[in-house]
Predict the structure.
Amino acid sequence: MPETKSRQQQPLIHGTSAAYFHGQCRCESCRDYGHRYYLSRKGQPKKPREYPDHGTYRRYHRGCRCEPCRQAIAAYNRQRYCPHPRAPVPLRHGTNSGYNRKCRCEPCRQAHAQAMLASYYRNFRSLKVPAPEARHLLESLLSQGWTLNRIAQASGISRPALDDLQARRSPMVHRPVYERLRTLFSTAEIPGSRPEGRLNGPTPTA
């Protein structure tokens, strides 16, 4: 044990196997030694190892932590992860694009609010249908002898949804409700229907 401790206290001689393998040193001299060692093991000719220049991104990732290499990696990170737009496009205030580019002035806020409202109504109109069109189908079925329970059972629509539609509680209904009522109206056997055929329901307006 005393010999082991005395050996550990001795300074490493760089560029040797003791420093490279036992000391785990990776300075340039020790790297060159390790490179020559592995080339000699493979039987390849010894070639000096080439390193990137200092002050570059590649040299930093090869293990160098000198001041120029630190500045190079800092500049690279600033360019890569900068939150500001890279393209020199002027910011236009009062637009949704200006709001998305982190501007929070009052014109940009209003433009963003209007854009979100327009997007909501576009999705809303695509998912819902005016209630009078669906109510016309429901009232036509009721006038021909159908009951709400029978319509709910045949179409798969819940009874509360039919009650709300009949009571005019909402100006819009979901499109699947309208489609199911229209399918039932056009395909079901309705007692007392006209001989020339069954009526087709109205087409929802866009």
